[in-house]
């Protein structure tokens, strides 16, 4: 009788031990995934205004330097394009004048320093560059990254990185910028959108004038509502959310 109870007890202890090992492994592998995937912790969907508030909070209240966030944003796009599925023989980065363009310039600089043939097409009024964009452009020029204001044929590039507009787009894209968007779409070359395909409203998902048609969209911090509603399904392609260090205040 006693030996039966010892047997039952020891079986229970061994069983409990293996269960705890299983649980520990599960937690470990989840943590590993978090690091490897660098994905967000919660599948929160935010508007452009919420994301702008989170950017501001992270930079101004927490004290995270904006340049650090931009560098992480750039590296997260590079990790996606380098992971396979894209031909990096001739890369074109289309950059606007805001911080989305700043991300694009940082992407171009890092690719250039890694030996990739990359060119930047800088569109918009250079006198209106955001502070971060200006800094990134100066760094690009010191590293002799090719930066121009026109392109002969978008079809000469094996992949196009769209960094024209991000969540700061407020009105229709018109004129030369709209022409460029149409030509990029007509080129049928693979496009990776930085944060959101340019021309898509990050809150409503509506096309403002015209919008880039992306194969892949790498969006930062949190999924934007505009990537899930309205015209989004015609423009976003595969959406990847990357943690770049911007967190909601309630995090
Ligand atoms: N705040 C930060 O430090 C960070 C910003 N990031 C990037 O910055 C982006 C947001 O940057 P911005 O707020 O500078 O906005 P955008 O880069 O989206 O551009 C907005 C600029 O374009 C102008 N504009 C808006 N609509 C226009 C139109 N139809 N035609 C012509 N000009 C137009 C605006 O007046 C503004 O100057 C994000 O999407 C993300 O990619 C990331 O680098 C992470 C860090
Ligand atoms: K973009």
TrEMBL record:
Gene Ontology cellular component terms for the protein in this record: P-body
Enzyme class of the recorded protein, top EC level: isomerase
Binding site for (6S)-NADPHX: 99-103, 166-172, 195
Xref: Pfam families: YjeF_N (PF03853)
Single Gene Ontology MF annotation: nucleotide binding
Matching SUPFAM superfamilies: YjeF N-terminal domain-like
Keywords, alphabetical: Isomerase, Membrane, Metal-binding, NAD, NADP, Nucleotide-binding, Potassium, Transmembrane, Transmembrane helix
Entry EC no(s): 5.1.99.6
Catalytic reaction equation(s): (6R)-NADPHX = (6S)-NADPHX; (6R)-NADHX = (6S)-NADHX
Gene Ontology process terms (BP): deadenylation-independent decapping of nuclear-transcribed mRNA; P-body assembly
Cofactor binding notes: Binds 1 potassium ion per subunit.
Domain YjeF N-terminal: 51-251
Superkingdom as given in the UniProt entry: Bacteria
Transmembrane segments: 6-24
Cofactor(s), names only, from the UniProt record: K(+)
Record-listed K(+) binding positions: 100, 162, 198
Function in brief: Catalyzes the epimerization of the S- and R-forms of NAD(P)HX, a damaged form of NAD(P)H that is a result of enzymatic or heat-dependent hydration. This is a prerequisite for the S-specific NAD(P)H-hydrate dehydratase to allow the repair of both epimers of NAD(P)HX.
Family: Belongs to the NnrE/AIBP family.
Name of the protein described by the UniProt record: NAD(P)H-hydrate epimerase
Species, as recorded: Periweissella fabalis
Name of the gene this protein is made from: nnrE
């Amino acid at each position: 009788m006693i030996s039966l109870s010892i047997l039952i007890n020891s079986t229970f202890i061994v069983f409990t031990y293996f269960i705890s090992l299983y649980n520990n492994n599960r937690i470990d592998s989840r943590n590993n995934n978090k690091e490897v995937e660098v994905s967000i912790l919660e599948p929160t969907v935010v508007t452009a205004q919420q994301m702008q508030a989170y950017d501001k909070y992270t930079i101004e209240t927490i004290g995270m330097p904006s340049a650090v966030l931009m560098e992480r944003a750039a590296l997260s796009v590079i990790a996606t394009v380098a992971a396979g599925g894209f031909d990096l023989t001739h890369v074109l980065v289309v950059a606007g004048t805001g911080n989305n363009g700043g991300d694009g310039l940082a992407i171009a600089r890092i690719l250039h320093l890694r030996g990739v043939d990359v060119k930047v097409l800088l569109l918009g009024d250079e006198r209106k560059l955001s502070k971060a964009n200006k800094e990134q452009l100066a760094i690009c020029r010191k590293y002799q990254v090719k930066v121009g204001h026109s392109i002969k044929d978008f079809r000469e590039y094996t992949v196009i990185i769209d960094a024209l507009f991000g969540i700061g787009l407020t009105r229709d894209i018109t004129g030369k910028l709209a022409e460029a968007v149409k030509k990029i779409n007509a080129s049928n070359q693979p496009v990776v959108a930085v944060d959101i395909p340019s021309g898509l409203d990050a809150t409503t998902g509506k096309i403002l004038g015209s919008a880039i048609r992306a194969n892949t969209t790498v969006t930062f911090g949190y999924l934007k509502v505009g990537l899930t509603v309205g015209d989004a399904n015609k423009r976003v392609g595969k959406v990847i959310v990357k943690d770049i260090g911007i967190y909601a205040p309630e995090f």
